[in-house]
Fold this protein.
Amino acid sequence: MVSDIASPMNLRSLRTRFALFVLLAYLVGGAAAFFALLAAARSVTADLTQRYAAKQALYEKTKVLAAIRRDLALSLKLADSPLLRHWIQNEDNPALKTLAFEELESYRRLFQDKSYFLIVDKSLHYYYDDAKGEFAANPLRYTLSEKNPGDAWYFKIRQSPETLELNADYDRGLNVTKVWFNVAILDNQGRKIGLGGSGVDISKFLKPLVNSAEPGVQTVLFDRSGVIEADKDHKIVEHNSNLSAHKKPITIFDTLASADSRAKIRACIDRLVAQGDSFATTVISEHGHRYYAALAYLPEIHWYNLVLVDEASVIASSVFLPVMAVGVLSLLGIVLAIGLYLNRSVIRPLGQLSRSAEQVAGGDYSVQLESTRTDEIGVVNRAFSAMARTVKDHTENLERKVAQRTDELSQSMRKVEEANGLIMDSLRYAKMIQDAVLPKSSDVARMLGGHAVVYRPRDLVGGDFWLFYVDGDACLIGVGDCTGHGVPGALMTMTANSVLSQLVSLHGIGDPALLLGELDRQLRKVLHQGASGNAEVDNGLEAALCTCRRGDSRMIFASSRISLFRGRAGRVEEIKGDRQGLGYAKNDPEYAYHNREIAVDPESVFYLTTDGWLDQAGGPKSLCFGLGRFVSMLAAASGLPLDAQVRRFEAELAAYQGAECQRDDITVLAFIPWSR
């Protein structure tokens, strides 16, 4: 070994030329590998940071919704209490007042902040009690006044068409700062007669979100106008919570120094609104730092959750230095190993090499060939031993990586199951809210001679609904079938119900065709559909409305694509409606829906159905239930009480459906206008 090194280098020697070639390859390959690894490290860092920001935004969104969902549902239930509505309309009745205070106390104990508030619009009285119970005997705290700037929030909500608002607010009368759930209390005509709900201490609600312990992570919550509702800078929140006439709120765009950053955040907001994605991501630069931004929309409270992640805080560049060092040393080790092999004999007998090759082919990688010879066979033997060791190392490393990836996959599956549980909880809460909007059977029974309903959403929530309004001795009853089913359909039902309630309060219930026309125009306006609207999303609904007046021998019927069926004396008659839908972008904006007068007598039973029943597949050929079979079913059940008819309808549909899945939401409404 020493003599070889000391001797002059022979450039014609194969060993010398091979050593020079390996050295050159090492330098070129090492440089290429270094820069490739550096580029890969940057790409991985960017991708992981972006994914982390998106997951953090969705996680914070889940935390926000989990924190408010229970109290939000309780506030909606409080506003829907028949007892409280009755007392608000008769505030001076001592018996009702006692019962109302008892019910408010029961809600107070359920709210997580142990407090409630209720405002009577007629008297502007503000009722309040908290966990201390010092106002339990007489929760009347003070009377609101339009002249008091501190009470301006209520009169603003009173004029708003929204029935639910959530906001951070400083109440000067109570000297508390809370996030308030403001739920409108409506009378039977959909008019606001009061406001009720609860509040959550803003420090308990928002501090854990914005004061994240994660390094380099910032969380900001702001409303649809960009006004910041929660930020780690408490001065901003205090400023926005105590606005006066000469103060302007601080928005998320005010906190961004770069015009490019403001434009990118606004583009993310527009993308969430237009496409309905769960989150949107972008990259911004602020004060010399590069941030990955993820934005999520919280539809229940109309807020946005913005998460900013500093790229350097997630994975530092120094993390990849050991990997680069290992690569360089590995290449250097290969060169040294080749040098050692060249300085030894590597030739072994060909017979031993052949037997060793058979062992390796059989899966035994522990073969180590020994040779003291200096010829080519010794070189080949030692190269073969190195190859066997390399294969063994790769095999063992592969097995370890497979075990590691299997464990990571199991952890991911557990996270997916947890996320699915949260989604199902959200759907159950959504179903409770949607069911609360549907009419109460007791209210319908007081006006009609009888009624029965089959209401079967395809999923937990659906796009079908039925409605009932009362105005004196008249009532409006009908059904609606919105585009889609599941969560999208449910959102459409809430939108249609809200718009229709406003139209009823404005125009009354005497002209159902007018209500349909206004509903079509208002929905296209709300959904931004039309000549300049979003052509990619075309949502709407079909609906039928009937106006009945007690003692009147006629009923007014107007419809959009839903027929009215009249059963009398074993015969069924179909009365078709207009063929234009409601709210669709391609609708004729000048189209006038028609009222039809229908003769009413004590023997008549009327039926309204959405297309879910008619389109349900079943039978031996998996065909739709169809209109003919539906009419025959109505005729066969004629003469039975409505409850018995409905049970018979459901049994016949179940028998026809068999093992087929329910295709769409199903709603059938049967009613008798006159008392028999």
